[in-house]
Amino acid sequence: MKTREQVFEQAIHRLMVGEYPAARVAIQQTVRGLRGPEAQSLTAWGAFYLGMLYRERGQGFRAFKLFTEALHRHHTLSDPSGQGWALHALGTIACQGDHWAQALPLFRKAVGLGHRSSDISLVAAALNDLSRVALLEGRLQKAKQLLGNMTFPLASPVEFIAKRTTILVTLTWGRLALEESDGEMAAAYAAQSEELSRRWGDEAVQTEIGLLLAEIALQRRMGDLAVEHTRTALARARQFGQRWVEAEALLLAGRIALARDDTQGAQETLEEVLGLAKRLGSRLLRLRALATVAMVCERSQQAAEALTHARRVLRLLAPRELPQLQDAMHALGRRVSVAPEEQALWKVSAPRSLSRTDP
Question: How far apart, in Å, do the first and last CA atoms of the chain sit?
């Protein structure tokens, strides 16, 4: 009897190289041809893989429906590993919709189901996203603790998932090192992720690796290299149809342009981000873009426009936001006359978005 990996071999290959339309056809054809006692389980996994595909392309509602279908099918089959992967995937959709409070218990339930089914890749994937949320909240020690609770080497009923999770966990270690201003260690993790993605032929995840390399170059004030990595990641994201990674790459390109005093280029790029945020339905992405636009206006000596954008940010902020807007808000507070209650609000901030190449 073929393994799950063998049944979906062609579809998985298409997913790994970013050929999403071909992957969709391969998954649908595979599911239609299923027969025998394993058909129900494999149909559930087919729904899961299709959900991955639509999530990558920024079609969150379709992905949500497919992950929910996968969850229901795995529950009917009493498959804790399958349930856990579906819950984890639903958590990533919740994060895309800025619903952090709803995502965290889904990730925690996935950890429990992973332990119950001895699927350590599921445990690692869920812990990885919990750690990424902790990173976004500025809780570096908590992120490190969560990452340290993983067991390696990873193993999973689906080898592709184990490989992808290993790469993503390595990337999170790199992001943590970057947050701790350890560019050398971050670069080492990025290089390890790149080597693993090439060894395993996982081209789709290389867009996210490119963004980390660009962030590292930006922190090291290597502007030309940061631009090169960002352009490459953006081109690949567009080639693959990875809408969320495309948005992250554009936002990073705007930040790099601002760092190089190219205010016009930054403004044009950020307008693209705002348009993409509207299409993706992401309040958080829009908030981050507006905050950077406010910085562009401030740098261009356009105080009134900067204040307008800053107030738009304030109207978008939820009660419990995270620490990314602090520098922009403080810079504006020093240069623009605003009411004291607004200045107090400007100490609240918001996170970098999670990228969406996780399994």
Answer: 25
